[in-house]
């Protein structure tokens, strides 16, 4: 079986927990039992024969061990916006070695406007957006309210609810401190009665070229705050507890259509996971608002809240993208 690299920052001065004490470590141990070696790190070397060697850490029972070994593919979990120089350096060295999610897909998803236009061409309906600040006030007057976002933002940084009377900036700070980006304005999705806002994240992961796994949805909801963020006090619940069967069914159908749209991308075969964000319009009907190519954290929250129900699911989710990459690059 092939060796798969996981592109993450490594702090050599940090004391590491045993692999068994972290979900990603347990996933790596499980993959090792099935003959799939995983290396975690951020250092690679291009050999003269075109082979890529990665230096990092490999999970063994009770310990992480240093290793240098050729890899067949790499799962990209590196903070590429904040540490762009090193990310670009590694990307150049990779050559033809697959990087998943591909940088072309990550760049598309990071550009919220281009991503929405791509999905709309595939028949996916999303709340309308405006990208010209000169028209923001006209759109807000038409819509009544909206959300202003950094066009290339991530992790919810810089997102805020705005009304028709608000003064809106022509540039806005994104995920990189001190770096201003062009904003986009997206029409608000009304929340169900009794709620100020309700957001739903579904993690979808590749299991084969033609199949996806849909993880348990995670709901963030607030009765007072339109920006439903757990750090701001939003309630976090699992979808099966908070959403009706009809809503969950619609989210599943929409998710399948969105995944099918991304399969049409030229590098779609190498997409291993996506985070799909929805807002509830009513108690039944969800509205799809954006996609994240670096989804993180949601299943971890459920595993913390309900360990007996979701710890094992979290471990499997950590390993699923690596297992898919191994299946694509295995030598017959």
Secondary structure layout:
Blueprint lengths: L2 E5 L15 H11 L3 E10 L5 E9 L2 E8 L2 E4 L7 H11 L4 E2 L2 H8 L1 H10 L7 E2 L5 H8 L1 E6 L9 E4 L8 E2 L6 E2 L1 E5 L9 E12 L2 E4 L3 E5 L12 E4 H4 L2 H19 L9 E8 L5 E7 L5 H8 L1 H23 L3
Parallel strand pairs: 1-2, 1-5, 5-6
Antiparallel strand pairs: 2-3, 3-4, 7-12, 8-9, 8-12, 10-11, 13-14, 13-15, 13-17, 15-16, 17-18
Précis, in short:
The chain has 332 residues and is α+β, with helices and mostly antiparallel strands. Helices cover 31% and strands 30% of the residues.
Tell me what the structure shows:
The structure is a single chain. With 332 residues, this protein is of the alpha+beta class. The protein has three domains: 3-97, no CATH class; 101-125 and 190-295, ATP-grasp fold, B domain (D-amino Acid Aminotransferase, Chain A, domain 1, 2-Layer Sandwich), CATH 3.30.470; 128-188. Helix content is 31%, strand content 30%. It is built from nine helices and 18 strands. It has helices at 23-33, 84-94, 103-110, 112-121, 136-143, 239-242, 245-263, 298-305, 307-329; strands at residues 3-7, 37-46, 52-60, 63-70, 73-76, 99-100, 129-130, 145-150, 160-163, 172-173, 180-181, 183-187, 197-208, 211-214, 218-222, 235-238, 273-280, 286-292. Strands 4-3-2-1-5-6 form a six-stranded mixed sheet.
Descriptive keywords:
D-amino Acid Aminotransferase, Chain A, domain 1; 31% helix; six-stranded antiparallel β-sheet; alpha+beta
């Amino acid at each position: 079986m092939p060796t798969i690299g996981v592109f993450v920052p490594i702090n050599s001065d940090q004391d590491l927990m045993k692999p068994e004490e972290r979900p990603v470590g347990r996933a790596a141990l499980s993959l090792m039992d099935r003959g799939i070696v995983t290396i975690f790190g951020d250092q690679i070397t291009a050999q003269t024969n075109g082979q890529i060697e990665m230096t990092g850490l490999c999970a063994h029972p009770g310990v992480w061990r240093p290793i240098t070994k050729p890899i067949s593919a790499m799962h990209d979990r590196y903070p590429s916006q904040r540490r762009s120089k090193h990310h670009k350096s590694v990307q150049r060295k990779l050559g033809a070695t697959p990087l998943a999610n591909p940088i072309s897909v990550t760049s598309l998803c990071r550009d919220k406007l281009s991503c929405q236009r791509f999905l709309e061409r595939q028949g996916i309906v999303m709340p309308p957006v405006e990208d010209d600040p000169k028209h923001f006030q006209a759109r807000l007057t038409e819509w009544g309210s909206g959300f202003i976002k950094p066009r290339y933002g991530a992790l919810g940084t810089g997102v805020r609810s705005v009304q028709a009377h608000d003064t809106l900036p022509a540039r806005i700070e994104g995920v990189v401190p001190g770096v201003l980006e062009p904003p986009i304005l997206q029409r608000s999705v009304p929340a169900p009665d009794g709620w100020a806002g309700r957001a739903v994240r579904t993690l979808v992961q590749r299991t084969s070229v033609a199949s996806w796994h849909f993880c348990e949805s995670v709901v963030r909801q607030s009765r007072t705050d339109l920006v439903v963020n757990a750090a701001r006090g939003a309630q976090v619940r699992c979808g099966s507890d908070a959403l009706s069967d009809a809503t969950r069914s619609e989210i599943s159908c929409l998710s399948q259509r969105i995944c099918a749209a991304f399969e049409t991308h030229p590098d779609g075969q190498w997409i291993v996971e996506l985070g799909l964000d929805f807002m509830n319009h009513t108690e039944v009907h969800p509205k799809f608002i954006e996609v994240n190519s670096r989804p993180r954290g949601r299943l971890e929250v459920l595993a913390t809240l309900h360990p007996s129900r979701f710890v094992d699911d979290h471990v499997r989710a950590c390993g699923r993208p690596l297992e898919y990459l191994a299946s694509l690059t295995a030598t017959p």
